Amino acid sequence: MNRDNLKSKNESESSPEKTRKGISRRGFLKGAGMTTVGTVALQSGVLGNTLDEQSLDEKAIGPDAELIKLKVNGESHSLAVEPRMTLASALRDKLQLTGTKVVCDRGACSACTVWIDGKPVNSCLTLAVEVQEKEITTIEGIGTPEKLHPVQEAFIEHDATQCGFCTPGMIMTASHFLQNHPNPDLEEVKTALRGNLCRCGTHPNVFKATLSASKKM
Amino acid sequence: MNKFSWYEAKSVEDALSKVNATASDILGKAPNSSSVIFKAGGIDLLDLMKEGLVNPSTIVSIKNIPGLDKIEYSEQDGFKIGANVTLEELENNAVVKEKYLALHQAVAHAGTAQLRNSATLGGNLAQRTRCWYFRSIDHQCYRKGSGTCYAQEGENEFHAIMNNKTCASVHSSSVSTALMAFNATVEIAGPNGKTRSVTMEEFFVDPETDSRTENILASNELITGIAIPAVNENVKSFYIKQGARESHDWAIADVAVVMEMSGGKCNNAEIVLGAAAPVPVKAEDAAKKLRGKSINESVASSAGKASVKGATPLANNAYKVPIFRSIVKRAILNAV
User: Fold this and answer.
1) A12 touches chain B (CB under 8 A)
2) What are the residue boundaries of the structural domains of chain A, listed by start?
3) CA distance B118 to B194
C-alpha cells in the first residue's frame, strides 16, 4: 500500500466527521434544545466558581473524532482523532507509520520514543491533539532504506538488535543524544540510553553501536 | 481511556473557570457528564486514565498557558519556577546545578529522559502514589474510601516504614524530597483571583488528614509555581536516590541534605526522606545531630541512625531501614 492510498483512506475515514467549522453534532443537539448544559449546570451549581459549561462545550474538541493536523517528518497530515488518541496510536493506526512501537504503553520502556520539536518523548503518553503545532519526527524520518542514518547503520553493523522491538526507540534516543554530544564515552552513552529497555538484553551492542556511530556523525 | 473532550486554557483564570474537580476527586468513579479536570504534562494522569481509575468528561490543558513556563532567578530572592517548567529544563538549569545541587540531582534521577522532556514541575508535585494497590482498579483501598490498606498484610516491600499504620503508600515525587530540604513553597491559584503560598510540609498531607489525596489542592485550585529561597555560598547540599537498579526506577529510599556551613561547622541543616512515609518527611532528629557540629564520619553516622529512629517497618520492607541510615550518612559526607 503506498502513502497516497493511505492518505486517501484517511481522508475518506474522516470525511463523515464534522470539522470544527461545519455543522457539528453538538450544534445539532443545541438546535434540538437537548443540550447537556442544563444537566451540567444543575450538577455544578454547588461549585463556587462560574462554570461556563456552554462555552466550554462550544470551544472544546471531541469527545468524538475531529480533524486535526499533524506535521510528521516534515509532511502535513489531516486526520480525524478523538482527543483520547495517543500520538503513538495516531502515528501507527492513522498514518501507518508503524516504525514507532508500543510496548509498555506507560512511559516505562521508551520503545515509543519520537521527537517533538527535536526532543525525545514517549508518544504513548502524548495525546495527538496536543502536538498539532509541533514538529514530530519518527524513525521513518531520520533515515530511509536507501540512505540510512549513521546510527541505523551502526546498529546493523554491531548486531544491536535481537527481536528488534525496542530498536526504533533506541535509535531515536541514541541519534538525538549524538546530535548534542559528538564525542561521548561509554558512561555517557549508558546514561543517555537509561530510559530505553531491551528485554532481550542487547544493551552492550547498543552501546557499542552508539559509540561507533558517534565517530561517523 | 474513556472518551473525553479537550480544551486549551488561555490563562490561569480561564482554566480555573472551567474545571470542577481534581483527578483525585473523581478517582475510582465512573465517567460522569460533568467532570472537568486539568492536565499539564499528563505523565501521571494518562497512566491513571489508562488504568481506568480516572474518567473525566473534559480535560482542560494548562500546558500552553502563557507565563507558567518561566524560570526566574535572583541572588536576593532565589528561584520562582513556573508550574509548567519541565523537569528537563530544571535539570539543565545552570544555577540549579551550581547552587542547588541536591535539587539538580533529584530532578536528573526522576523518571527517564523521555519523561523529563514532558513532565512538568507542578505535575510532579501533584502526582499520586505509585502504590500497586492504589493503582489497581481491583483494589478498593483506603485511598479509594474503603478503609482497608492492603499493603499492611500484603506485598509491601516498597512501602512506607514510618507513619504507615493507616496507609502505607509512599509518595513518588523525588523532586519534592529536594524541594522540601530547600524550604521551597508552592504557589497556588484559586477562584476569584485568590492565591496562596504554602510550604512543602503544608502542601503534603497525611493519609489521616485526607484519605483521598496526598496534597491540599482543592477542586478549583491550580499550582502555578514553586518558590525556592536564596542560598548563599556556604549552603551545601546533596541528594541520593536508592532504586532497585541504576537505569531508572522509583526510589526505594531517597534523601536530600541541605546544610549551611560556617567555619567548618554546620550552622543549620535540613534532612528530608522520600519513600519513607506516605509523604516526604523532614528528619528533624537527624538534622539536630548536625547543627552546631563539625561534620565528620561519626556525626554523619549518628544522623543516619537518628533519621530512622522509631521506624515501624512492615513484614517485607525492614531492609529499607539500613538503606536510609546509609544514604543519609553518605549524603551528609558528600555534601560538605
Assistant:
1) no
2) 21-60, 66-141, 150-214
3) 28
Residues of chain A with pLDDT under 70: 1-55, 57
ipTM of the complex: 0.95
- What pTM was estimated for this model as a whole? 0.89
**According to CATH, what is the number of the domain A150-214?**
1.10.150.120
Q: How far apart are CA A110 and CA A196, in angstroms?
A: 5
**Amino acid of residue A86:** T
The set of cell numbers assigned to B304 is 543516619
Q: Which of B199, B27, B210, B211 is nearest to B125 (CA)?
A: B199
Contact A127, A112 (CB under 8 A): no
Query: Structural domain boundaries of chain B?
Result: 1-61, 235-335
| Chain A contact set for B48 (CB, 8 A) | none
Binary contact (A125, B46; C-beta < 8 A): yes
Asked if the Cβ–Cβ distance from B118 to A125 is below 8 Å, we say yes
- For the residues B115-132, what does the mean pLDDT come to? 98
Q: How far apart are CA A82 and CA A25, in angstroms?
A: 14
B49, B58, B63: residue with CB nearest A130: B63
Minimal Cα–Cα distance from A2 to chain B, Å?
A: 31
Kindly report the CATH number that applies to the domain delimited by A66-141: 3.10.20.30
Contact list, B117 vs chain A (CB under 8 Å): 116, 119-121
Taking the C-alpha atoms of residue A171 and residue A113, their distance in angstroms, rounded to an integer, is 9
pLDDT tens string A2-24? 444 343 334 334 433 434 433 34
pLDDT of res. A31:
34
Least CB–CB distance from B247: residue in A62, A116, A194? A194
B1-61 is a CATH 3.30.43 domain: yes
What class does CATH assign to B235-335? Answer: alpha beta
